[in-house]
Amino acid sequence: PGASMYEFVRSHESGARTYANSIDVVIERGEGTAVFDTAGRRYLDFLMCAGTLATGHNHPAVLERIQRFLQSGHVMQVLDITTPAKHDFLTRLLECLPSPWASRARVQFCGPTGADAIEAALKLFKTATGRRSVIAFHGAYHGMTAGALALTGNLSAKRHVASLMPDVYFMPFPYAYRCPFGLGGKLTSQVSLAYIERALTDPESGIPHPAAMVVEVIQGEGGVIPANVDWLRGLRQITARLDIPLVIDEVQTGIGRTGTMFAFDAAGIEPDAIVISKAIGGGFPMSLVVYDKKYDVWQSGAHAGTFRGNQIAMAAGTACLDVIRDEQLVTAAQAKGEYLGGRLAELAAQYSIIGDVRGRGLMWGLEIVDPTARPDAIGSHPANREMALALKHRCLRNGLILENGGRYGAVLRMLPPLNVSLDEIDEAVTILAQALKEASD
Ligand code: PMP
After folding, report:
1. What does the similarity note say (predicted)?
2. If pLDDT is split at 50, 70 and 90, which confidence band does 378 have?
3. What is the Cα–Cα distance from 107 to 127, expressed in whole angstroms?
4. Between the chain's N and C termini, which has fewer beta carbons within 10 Å?
């Protein structure tokens, strides 16, 4: 039955399919870090819906809460009317924010996707400041809707779209390994900050006073590129000095993923807004903008969206936050992430096609390179991408789901659940090592 189900879906679904093209099975069940196909074969899921399932597949406590909610007779959708589910969710969410900031926070519930909340944030800050330009970063990813795509740094995602939101200005993200400007290790945090400050203050740069700066603390789709805490603090100082609202996109990094509740927590800064989605819905679609109340300029109805009140997502999200607290999964993500990072560094020492190992918490990337070429040699990128894809396919065939990404598609990415076990990490590393060995033979 699996093969005919697969074929039926494949022949009717859009050409934008990704995974489904390289994994010709039907995934039926999930439990913890594993998923199972219709033939009962087990795969370790080190992708978790791009980091969405923080507590793994079907965590019993999350399942139990969803079942209890469904049986309770509570409403499922009520636009933005107050409900007990919303009250409980908001209470838990605010507990997760750094404390002085939480007391000033306002929350806009948005539609189901991260891109939805990015659009809301753009609209809010354009309204609040009366300005129209926006600052984004090379290599950034913020989603596929028109405004979010305009902020996405890599051209490949938007090359074929004729018109996008105008007035977006891109700044250099501190990515020294394969610097897109060919600067290699010279694109340090200080150089990036110096450039940004100059570009935003020099009247000759032609950048109008921006409505917002939107940034990821660790670029995820962009190839797992962590910015260091000093860079983020520097960015906060510059934006505060120049009165530019700082919007941090925590869609992928939020909810414990990087070993702190939010990635910006590590820098101890206060942003003007954060955008949250993925893990916050406990596996159900939800997105939010949390922002400083001084920007709360919206009048009733100024922002809307039918599914901004998905009650199951609120119940599941509350359960997920409870599990993360009760099982101390943020600290676990930090410790297990260090272990995973160490194991990946061992592989890098063994296989020269791993050029760089980067990550924080349970968000890791391996940059695949041609060891005989300079890391920033443009010509080697297509071959590196092919190699990354070949490794990904080998891992899939051998029972490990991961993702490739990055500006050139040459970064293998891992986003296991926060409650992944050390044994599962070892198992995944063994499968990856086997794929690397086969590729190097
Ligand atoms: N921002 C970041 C940092 C993301 O990683 C993503 C999705 N990968 C998005 C925004 C967009 O979220 P969605 O796919 O739910 O629209």
Report:
1. Belongs to the class-III pyridoxal-phosphate-dependent aminotransferase family.
2. low
3. 16
4. C
Domain residues for the domain of 8 are: 2-55+328-440
154 Cβ closer than 6 Å to some ligand 1 atom = no
| Any ligand 1 atom below 6 A from CB of 366 | no
Pocket test residue of 141, 224, 276, 413 for ligand 1, highest count of atoms within 8 A of CB: 141
pTM: 0.97
Q: Are residues 199 and 316 in the same domain?
A: yes
Query: Domain containing 106 — which CATH number?
Result: 3.40.640.10
Q: What is the pLDDT of residues 150-190, one digit of tens each?
A: 999 988 778 888 788 999 999 999 987 877 777 767 778 89
220 lines ligand 1 (CB under 6 A): yes
CA distances from 1 to 5, 7, 29, 38, 263 (A): 6, 10, 15, 8, 43
Q: How far apart are CA 238 and CA 275, in angstroms?
A: 20
Among residues 326, 357, 382, the one where a domain terminates is 326
Claim to verify: residue 226 and residue 106 sit in the same structural domain: yes
256 and 365 co-located in one domain: no
Q: Are residues 198 and 82 located together in one domain of the fold?
A: yes
- CA of 252, closest atom in ligand 1: 5
